[in-house]
Amino acid sequence: MADLKMKAALKTAEGTFQVKDVEVVKIPAPDWVKVRVMVSGICGTDLRHWKKEEHDLECKIMGHEMAGEVVEIGEEVKNVKVGDRIVVETLLGDGTCDWCRVQQYNLCPNLYTVRMETISRAFAEYVIGPSTKFHLLPDHVSYQEATLLDTFSVCLHAQQLSGLKINDKVFIIGAGPIGIGQMQLAKASGADVIIADRIDSSLQIAKSLGADQIINIKHENVFQRVMGFTNGRGADLAFECAGGPTIHETLAASVSVTRIGGTVVIVGGFEKGDISIAMNWQDIQMKEIKLIPSASYSFWGIYPEMVMCLELLAKGKLNAKKMITHEFSIDEINEAFKTAADKENTGSLFVALHN
C-alpha cells in the first residue's frame, strides 16, 4: 500500500522550520510524475526567508533545488520511468498565458503561485510535477551535483541575455553559488573574470574554479582593482550576483566599474516592495550603459536552459563538487540554514540536504 504520509519541513510563524508528517502528494494528471527527493539545496532566495515572519508562507513547504528518483508516473508519461535518476526543474507557469505559450514561463504572471503549489516544494520527501520538468541524469552525475543545476541555469539565462563574447572582461560582485556559477560559465565562454565578495572562503573557491582575479571588498578598492584588470577602460560586462539588502551598494558598484557602452546584468534578487537605489543616472545615460534584469530561466531558442547546463556539467565544463561545502539531513534543516546563513564563520557556499 502506498504511503499515506510523507516527511516535510514546514515554515513556522517565526521563519524557522518544523519537520513533521503531512499528507503525501498524488499525481493529478496522466502526464505527471512523482519523485522521491534525494537531495535538495539551500539557495540565496531561501535564506532571505530565514527567520522572517511571513504569514503567507507559514506551514508551507519551500525549496526549489533538488534531484531524486522517479517513484510513480502517469499513463501518458514517455520521457521517464520508475527508478530513473532525475533533476527537477521547478519553474512551472500557468500554461495558458502568452509567455508560457512561447516557453518563457519564467515571466508567467502566475509563476510563483503555481509552482509553490506543486513542483517547487523541495524540502519534502516527495514532489510532483508535469513530466516535462524532469530530466534524466547520466550515471556519473550525482544527486548532489545535480541539485546545483537550478543555480547554473539562472546563471546561463543571465549570460545569454548579456551577449557575452570571447575575451570580454567581466566583473562579478557576489561570490555565492550564483556568482561562482556565473564565473564558471563566463570562463567556459572565453572571458576574463574578476570577482568580488567580502567572504574569503568563497573567494578562494572562486579562485580554485578559474577566476582570474579576486577582490575582498572589505580590504580592497573595487574600482581601482577593476580598472587595473581592464587596462583602465572598465568591465565590458558586470554581473550583480549578490542581491538582497545590499543591492543598493552592489548594483551601484557594478555600474561604477562598467566601461562606456558596457552592460550590467542584474541577477541577484530584490526584496519585495519599492526600493530606492541612488545612482548617477546622468552618467549611465551619457555612457549608454545597458541595465539588463534577468529573471530565473526557461528556454533559450529550442533548448531548455537546465538541459543545456546538465550537458555542460556532464561534460565537465561546470564543476559542482567544489561548490558543495556542507551536507545535512532534512531533520537537521534548521542547523543547515544556520550554517548557510553564517558563511563568514562556517565557510559555507552551497549547503545540501538529504532525505
State the shape. globular
Number of domains: 2
Main beta sheet strand tally, sense and closure: 7 strands, mixed
Mean pLDDT comes to: 96
- What percentage of the residues does DSSP assign to strands (E)? 25-35%
3D structure, described in words:
This protein is globular. The longest helix has 14 residues, at 149-162. By secondary structure, it is of the alpha/beta class. The strands form four sheets. Strands 3, 4, 5, 6, 7, 16 and 17 form a seven-stranded mixed beta sheet that branches. The chain has 13 helices and 17 strands. The chain folds into two domains: 5-148 and 320-354, Quinone Oxidoreductase, Chain A, domain 1; 155-293, Rossmann fold (3-Layer(aba) Sandwich), CATH 3.40.50. Residues 15-351 form the Enoyl reductase (ER) domain. This is Zinc-binding dehydrogenase.
Topology of this protein?
Layout: E1 5-11, E2 17-23, E3 32-42, H1 44-48, E4 66-73, E5 85-88, H2 98-101, H3 111-115, E6 126-130, E7 134-136, H4 143-146, H5 149-162, E8 169-173, H6 177-188, E9 192-197, H7 200-208, E10 213-216, H8 222-229, E11 235-240, H9 247-256, E12 258-266, H10 281-286, E13 290-293, E14 299-300, E15 303-304, H11 305-314, E16 324-329, H12 333-341, H13 343-346, E17 350-354
Parallel strand pairs: 8-9, 8-11, 9-10, 11-12, 12-13, 16-17
Antiparallel strand pairs: 1-2, 3-4, 3-6, 3-17, 4-5, 5-7, 14-15
Cofactor: Zn(2+)
Family: Belongs to the zinc-containing alcohol dehydrogenase family.
InterPro entries: ADH-like_C, ADH-like_N, ADH_Zn_CS, ER, GroES-like_sf, NAD(P)-bd_dom_sf, Zn_alcohol_dh
